[in-house]
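Hi C.,

You asked whether I'd gotten around to modeling the 339-residue construct. I have! Everything is below, sequence then structure, no commentary in between.
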Amino acid sequence: MSAPPPTLVLPAALVDPAWPGADRIAALAATPAWAALASRARVLACAGPEDPPPGAPGHLRWLATRLRLPAGTALAACAALVDGATDAAWRLDLVHLHVGRDHLVLGDPRELRPEADEAAALAAAIGPLLAEEGLALDARTPSRWYLREIDAARPLRVATRPLAGAIGRNIDAWQPRGEDARRWRRIVNEVQMTWHAHPVNARREAAGRPAVNSVWIEGRLAPGAPGVERDAAARIATDTPGGGPFSLALSDGARLVVDPRLLDAQLAGDPTAWHAAWHAIVADTLDAISRSGGGGRVVLAGDAGWREIAIAPRADWRFWRRPGAASLLAEPSATAPPR
């Protein structure tokens, strides 16, 4: 018996039409390969934005559910499994904040690319102030750091927001909340002041590189998910952008293929590249599903929601189930139960 086809996960497949242009979205919906696929599609489930917003991007929400991660686990924190920081309580990412019109905007962390010696010097500069707060800094890689709680009397009680959703946006709505939210803001302010005139940043700015001027905290790594699913989550959390599609095996024998090309273009703020990536995906991967006639599943995800569709085998499709090629590319506005 042959293995079922993989589920294709497409982050940033659903976007505000105003960004790439409504005419481009309409053109994508009308391509023969997409129209043929949509004619055999059935919506299995979909989810709109989390309430209250803002929440995790749609693909992270779907993946966290599919990988059976415990409630409250930040998928990004699963990188600790790869980095060997299994006793970490929190993940920290080095980030660059720049001033917008009247607020701070989070830059794309991929543009920082800190060298190992730069990261070591920056870590040494803030390690003592974190220790005073009962937090031990574990700078495992140049760009992915972790925090351990070393004072049981002072755990850090915050609910964090995903860095992936905040990139390019005003950070005000994405700040941690909870009992220690004010405490964490104070810690971050001290980090920012320490790094403001740090020699590492002076050299980076002189060379035309963005300064590493803040950190982003992301939620706890909770135990409990099956080993294979935790391994898959760790793979996602440490994926190198721009590396192309990658495959994940799950404990139930299913396989996921995550294609980050649309997301890379979105994070780069390049609607032309996004449109080109969609055409490439339609022309190769989706066209292959359509031509195979064997069916499959596709997860279309957006900034805040997602839609999972099943592609019926060619012999089994029913024209009255067809949701419409264009409607499948619209981001869901509310949560809908599976059908």
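If it helps when you're writing up: The chain has a mean pLDDT of 85.

Thanks,
B.
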